[in-house]
TrEMBL record:
Native species: Thraustotheca clavata
Membrane topology of the entry: Multi-pass membrane protein
Protein name, UniProt field: Polycystin cation channel PKD1/PKD2 domain-containing protein
Keyword Transmembrane: yes
GO cellular component, one term: plasma membrane
């Protein structure tokens, strides 16, 4: 995102009315009032700070769009909101994002190693209270070396990020790189000595403790984000354990918050209407449906590693599932990428298309599975792929992917008509699924992806804004002053001269000051044009749907006006 600078000598204009902005975003059929309020902040540092210090970004991203034409998230493309998002990114979100990224890499590595350790248990029929883990020697050497390098360097990065600020980012990057290089060579030099001190059993326990610690940190962050919009501080202040602060903390985070979360995830994620303005916007992100359950599952997994709650095979499968979930959840860190950011909402939309297609395809899948299963049950011997209903189901599903085996059909008897019936079922199945239904899903995905480059750009900005908003929910609203803005974000408030600008304007100081506002906010020149392009970049079907939705909204508004008379 281009660096946009604030003109600190701007003349005072109309003040930003937060209530008007909020009502426009949440209740209006269009966004004109919200846009007008944001326009008041242009070239006005005090009003920009009003937007920064308030929950404007959270309101935009958490308000559902109804009708679809007036998607509230498009407001993040307004120059003022883009500037506010960039300010929040520089002041706190960037450091929080990098910290969570490093911790996520550490968690994924440690969880992968924990699940991949080959543990040889003794005979389960014999009562052995503490099975001894034995790791494959070659695999253990590789796991240990990779773990030491990544864990050590990640720990250095986490400590160094405590001192990161935008003002000294260049110096911080240089010093951190120097420390990392020196640490790498020192670790490489003493690697043999360190490895010789690591017992396999000790290594496994330390790795599991690391997994539990990092997962617990992520769990606390997610709970803070989940309850950011809810007023749940009352139970935290109940004097049940007034003399024991630790017990009070455990009661709040270990008993109260998990209970409320379970109730909320059942009610909000599966029962409550997502268009309800009072719904939990935490579940607007598809990743958030799985994050807290995954981190809780990791804690249970680590506990089972020490006390053996599950049988060995169950523990292995549980670890593989959690490792898979962590790798999938790592995709959310692409939200800040300039080009990959828009792929996340696009993939979510395509996943929705796949779910709708599978719901439509399921009756055909079950019908043909039953047909194949009943057809081959009278044959002797029964083909291996059709021996059970489960095998028949898998074989039928693979036909959709083009995997067709003709040998079982060639062995059908011709006299009683089974041969002809078998091929009739197979040919109708292949024609219906491969020719018709697969083309339907391709058309659905093509329609989903047919949004144009402008829509992709808006989605990338929205993904970036959601990342910043998530960091703000975890951190909480912490207003800043003009002095803090000048100190913490020099790139956003710099007034250094630009060579191209001076050359264009003859180098005159007076002329430079006169036109500096246009230079600092040159993005405003194309704002109205871009906004119209976003509204016009629609297919014919989308226009019909939006027109019908707009008419319904107008009729509803007229009915409310008649009732109020």
């Amino acid at each position: 995102m281009d660096q946009i600078r604030i003109n600190f000598n701007a003349i005072e204009e109309e003040k930003f009315a937060f209530k008007t902005f909020q009502n426009s975003v949440r209740t209006s059929v269009d966004l004109n009032d919200a846009v007008q309020e944001l326009d008041k902040c242009i070239l006005n540092r005090k009003e920009i700070l009003e937007v920064y210090n308030g929950p404007s970004l959270s309101i935009i991203l958490s308000t559902p769009a109804n009708p679809p034409k007036y998607d509230r998230s498009r407001l993040v493309t307004h120059p003022v909101m883009r500037l506010v998002i960039q300010m929040k990114w520089e002041i706190f979100a960037k450091r929080m994002y990098l910290t969570q990224l490093v911790m996520n890499c550490l968690l994924v590595l440690a969880m992968t190693l924990s699940a991949s350790m080959n543990i040889d248990y003794s005979d389960p029929e014999e009562p052995t209270p503490m099975p001894t883990p034995t790791l494959n020697a070659t695999a253990y050497e590789s796991q240990r070396i990779v773990w030491l390098y990544v864990a050590w360097l990640s720990s250095i990065l986490l400590v160094a990020l405590k001192w990161y600020t935008p003002k000294r980012s260049v110096c911080w990057s240089f010093l951190t790189l120097v420390v990392l290089v020196i640490s790498y060579f020192l670790l490489h030099h003493f690697m043999d000595l360190i490895v010789s001190k690591f017992d396999p059993s000790l290594f496994q326990k330390v790795n599991n403790c690391l997994v539990a610690f990092v997962a617990f940190c992520f769990l606390v962050n997610e709970l803070n984000e989940f309850f950011a919009a809810a007023d749940l501080q009352g139970p935290k202040e109940i004097d049940i354990f007034s003399k024991y602060p630790l017990l009070q903390w455990l009661f709040y985070y270990v008993i109260f918050l998990p209970f409320i979360f379970v109730v909320a995830i059942v009610f909000c994620a599966f029962i409550q209407d997502p268009e309800d303005p009072h719904h939990f916007d935490y579940f607007d992100s598809a990743f958030n449906l799985f994050q807290i359950p995954t981190y809780c599952g990791i804690l249970v997994y680590v506990l089972s590693e020490f006390v053996h709650i599950f049988p060995p095979h169950t523990q292995l499968y549980f670890g593989l599932f959690l490792t898979f979930m962590l790798w999938v959840l790592s995709l959310q860190y692409l939200e800040v990428h300039s080009t990959a950011g828009y792929l996340l909402p696009l993939m979510r939309a395509i996943t929705g298309d796949m779910a709708r297609f599978m719901a439509f395809y399921a009756p055909f899948q079950i019908a043909y599975t039953c047909a194949y299963f009943l057809l081959f049950q009278n044959q002797h011997p029964i083909p291996d792929n059709y021996d059970t209903f489960g095998q028949t189901f898998v074989t039928t599903f693979l036909v959709m992917l083009g995997n067709i085996e003709l040998d079982p059909f060639e062995q059908l008897p011709v006299k009683n008509g089974s041969y002809v019936l078998g091929y009739v079922i197979l040919l109708t199945h292949a024609t219906l699924v491969i020719v018709m239904l697969l083309n339907v899903i391709v058309a659905m995905m093509t329609k989903t992806m047919d949004g144009g480059l402008e829509k992709a750009r808006v989605q990338a900005i929205v993904s970036f804004a959601e990342c910043v908003a998530r960091c703000e929910k975890i951190r909480g609203l912490q207003p800043i002053t003009i002095e803090e803005l000048t100190e913490n974000t020099p790139l956003l408030s710099s007034t250094q001269e630009n060579p191209k600008y001076n050359e264009k304007n003859g180098g005159g100081k007076a002329k430079k000051e006169e036109n500096e506002s246009k230079y600092n906010f040159d993005i405003l020149a194309d704002f109205d044009k871009d906004w119209e392009l976003e509204l016009e970049d629609k297919s014919t079907d989308d226009r019909i749907i939006e027109l019908a939705s707009s008419n319904e909204a107008i009729l509803k508004l007229l009915k409310e006006m008649k009732k109020s008379r």
